[in-house]
Amino acid sequence: MSDDASLDGFESTAATESDDADPAVSTYEWSPAGGECADCGASVERRWRADGERDGGLVCADCKEW
Ligand SMILES: [Zn+2]
To answer: Which of 11, 23, 41, 51 is the most buried (most CB within 10 A)?
Structure first.
């Protein structure tokens, strides 16, 4: 066995790529029948979980603080 060094290099590259997930994806909810925005009251299919002062509420894209 003389390829240990190259194998280690390949594994560290793969680990870096798999760690490239977007954390924002899991913070939104989709309601096919529409859901009410906690801020402006609009009925929208896609709402995002508000952070900070409106903790726990689901707001539309316009009200979400990006
Ligand atoms: Zn809204």
So the answer is: 51
